[in-house]
Structure formats: structure tokens, C-alpha cells
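With this grant's support, we have paired protein sequences with C-alpha cells. One protein thus recorded is set out beneath this paragraph:

_____
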Amino acid sequence: MRALAALLLICASIAQAETRLLEGHGGPIHATAVAPDGKTALTASFDNSVGYWDLATGEPNWLDGHEAAVNSVTYLGQGRAASAGDDYDIIIWDLDRGEVRHRLTGHLGTVNALGVTSDGKTLISASWDGTVGLWNIETGENLAMLDHHDGPVNDVAVLPGVGITTASAEGPLQATGSWAVMGAVDGTVLVLQDGQVIKDLSAGRRPILALAASADGAMIAIGDGEGHLMLVDTTDWSLVRDVKASETGPIWALSFTPDGTALLIGGIDDSAALWPIAAEDRPGLGRTERAFLTDPATMENGERQFKRKCAICHTLTPDGQRRAGPSLHGLFGRKAGTVPGYAYSAALKAKGVVWTDETIDLLFDQGPDHYVPGTKMPMQQITKARDRQDLITYLKENTKG
């Protein structure tokens, strides 16, 4: 009875409150999940980490183990969760200890989505290598790699009593009861049952990036690249809410609280929003000032190169903020792989390079994947020598220790 009372108290406070922000990530939020008891939540971020949040206090524990952006998170029960990312890996976490229980390897491309079979025993992974992986949750053993797609697999869902449904280039997928909802890059949103379209929920917005269903299947949420959020009542497929959830940028992540009164929403911001769906106010995301969205005409070329190529992963000051890459403060003359507290790739640490005008020029001339094979740094080049030199000049002026 005490546990039930605590859950009801949490749900009531969510329903009555305004939007609450879960703050602390150092990059956009790609996925969210709320625990079945409503007490905790998970967030997956571009900053390579998973946030494990106490919803009563808003405080996170950080689960660090991925070497690239994290794209998906899901609860597994019994104090466990799973995450997957751009490093091709899947991690099963011991949430109580904050430790890696199993690291699942075998995919040859980004792992974009995760699902769990109805019996809770098998984890399902959707990868851009064109395969769907089946994994034993208890042991981490790979049970099968299903290869039925000609291209990347973007999402996976389980229809109880029916089987696994997957989506390729179409976009996100959500299933509950006997029906499934599919979103597409062209803005199409279709409800399918027994292989037939029973409702078209398209609203002319594109692309569709996130779908979620409440635990009882009574409501679905639809998020798109324009920052809109639609809520639909599945009893008659009527529109409940249609709001501009993000001022700028897309909605990438949606998940309902267990009672269906609130949504945990993620997008281009460094924070996730816990938004009561009955609230008069909008979620208010999209207010993070992303450097790469700055008007190019307002910057010198070196600053422009930094904000386009580097700012999403790196800061220029020793502020300790979470990012996908280490701070660049004191960069010149520093040996690569030596900033305390950052988990560098073995390839970069073995390279032994010292950052100078010459080595930074080579890094962006050749591209990180060629200059340091095996690095976690994104594959990108700056082809014009003038642009590389302007970036180096800007970095020299703004990273002085």
C-alpha cells in the first residue's frame, strides 16, 4: 500500500505541475523512457551518456559506457535497462550499481532502436546495418541476426500475440494491442491493423521522428522535425492536443508516464521536459542556443568553422560541462587523450599526437577517421586550406590556458 501511495503521489504531482526540465546533459536528447512504477526515467543523449533520473528530485545518475551518441533506451525490469548507440554497441545496465552488466556486440552499424518481447526475456535491436538482433537479456547471448531489410532498420516494435514489426527508411514505429502506428519522412502517419490501414493521421508536417503510446493504449503522441507534438485519442482517433512543443528544432523522443498524464520529451535541447498533457502551457523546448544555428553572416570565418564542425561536441572553456568530446581549453601543445575524466578511444591515445597548427590542419585535411583510424571523432573534413587556417587561428585565440 505504501508503494501504491507513493506512485499515486508522484503521478498526482506530475499531473498538477507545470513542465519540469531534467537538466545536465551536454547534447541533444535522442530517446526517453519512464519506468513502469513512474519513479525514475532514462534519457539517451548525443553526449554519449545515459541519464538515470529520480523523478521526485530531478537528480540524475550518469551511465557512461558508450563511445558515441546514444540513440535508444529501455527498461528491462529487475533493476536493469538497455541502451544502444552510434558505437554499434548495446549495453545492459545494472541500474542499482550504475554498472555495465553486458556489452552486446555484433552489429556493423548504428543501433537506432530497442524493443523487448512480451515475456521480457529477449531484447530486440534495430540497426542501420540492415539487421534486427535478438539477444538473451539474462546472459547477453546473441540469439539471431535477422536480415530481411535492404537498407537501414530505424525502429522495432512488438505486437503481443503477433510478433515483431520493424521499420526501415519509413521512420519511427509504435505498437500496442492489435494495431501499430508508422511514421514516415514525408509526414505520413498511418495506423495499421491486420496489415490494413485503419486511420490516416497525417498532418502535412515532416519528417515524423517520434511516436509513443500510453501504457493502456488509449493515447498516442506524434513528434516531428518541425517541433510539433500531436496527441490522439485512440478510442475514436480524435485529436486531443496539437502544440508547438519546440520553438526550434525537432522532437526526437517521446514517452508517457505510466498513468498517461504526462510525457517525457526530448529534442535539440540539452534537457528533457516532463510535460503534463493537461497543462495550459506548452513544453517550451527548443530554447537552447545551438552554435551551429547561428547566422553565418554574424561571424568571422574561423568562428563559423568552429560552430559548424566542433561546437556540438566541444567547449572552449574548462567548465566541466558534459559533452561528446573533451574541452578544448589549453589545446595547443597538449598531448591528445590526456584531459582528465574523458574516456578517449584507444586509437587516439595510442597515436601519441600533440595538438599543434600542423596536426590540427592534418586532422581536418584528412578527416579524423583517416588521421586516427578507430577514433570516436565524427567523420568530417574541411577541404579548403583557408578554412582550416581560419579555424586554427580562432582556436588559438579562444583556447588559451
In short: The CA atoms of residues 106 and 251 lie 29 Å apart. Residues 2-16 form the longest helix (15 residues). Residues 291-398 form a domain with the Cytochrome Bc1 Complex; Chain D, domain 2 fold (CATH 1.10.760.10). Helices lie at 2-16, 301-309, 346-351, 357-366, 368-371, 385-398.
